[in-house]
Amino acid sequence: MTTRLNTLSVGTAGPRIAFLHGLFGQGRNWNQIAKALAGRNGTGARCLLIDLPDHGRSPWTEEFSFESYADAVAATLRATAPGETWTLVGHSLGGKTAMVLALQHPDLVDHLVVVDIAPKDYGSLERFQGYIDEMLGLPLEEIQSRADAEARFDEPNPGVKAFLLQNLRRDGTRWHWQANLDLFAADAAIGHESRIAGWPESVDELPPFDGPVLWIAGGDSPYIQPEDGDTMRRYFPLTRQFTIKGAGHWVHTEAPDIMVGALQRVLARAT
Prior knowledge:
- By secondary structure, the protein is of the alpha/beta class.
- It contains 10 helices and 9 strands.
- It folds into 2 domains: 7-120 and 199-270, Alpha/Beta hydrolase fold, catalytic domain (Rossmann fold); 126-189, no CATH class.
- Helix content is 36%, strand content 17%.
- The strands form 2 sheets. Strands 1-3-2-4-5-8-9 form a 7-stranded mixed β-sheet, sandwiched between helices. A two-stranded antiparallel ribbon has the order 6-7.
- Helix 4 (126-137) packs across helix 7.
């Protein structure tokens, strides 16, 4: 995939930093962090918030692969700032994409920040199956308004409901999902052969990424386990782990001030 992805820019000067969201997310999920890094005058950092393929306003794919996701992001970074390098931040699905990109396109990445995900196979998308079913089950042809969609959407957690419904858009009188739900549903149906939950074997043939890596974990999240450290350092020898106590998987929304501070220190080293 070489199509340029949809992006949102925040900041007008300073080091370049790009953000990749997780499954069902969008680049603007990082907007609060980006605005804090850019600062009031916009010169603290030049932030690029990217919609991954099959998400937000970016093109859809017919078959999922981390390699093609990473290539699409790399093409977008090169088109945005030819010849420049980036600090690359990725959470969950975006974290895996960022890791694969650093391995496939090391010339693009100065610093890598991986948020609450490990370079391993997580088995299946079973934990997301309920969300996919809820979204596919919403009768879009009957929806009259966003309030109507919220009332019909069967999700008890208000934060999760708002996060998932950000994918719902209206064109004229027609409602549609921006996320490629059919692709995600097909991947989830594979079970333990899920590509989205997995980790691409192709990167084992690539040399390790020799740049600095900050590996941020949520202290209350199960996504990173002690035994994952050896695998992480096999691909990324200069990894430094940072655990944010009291935070779950969505670290950047649960502990934004700590996240901003950590990224400011990374950017200071990058400059």
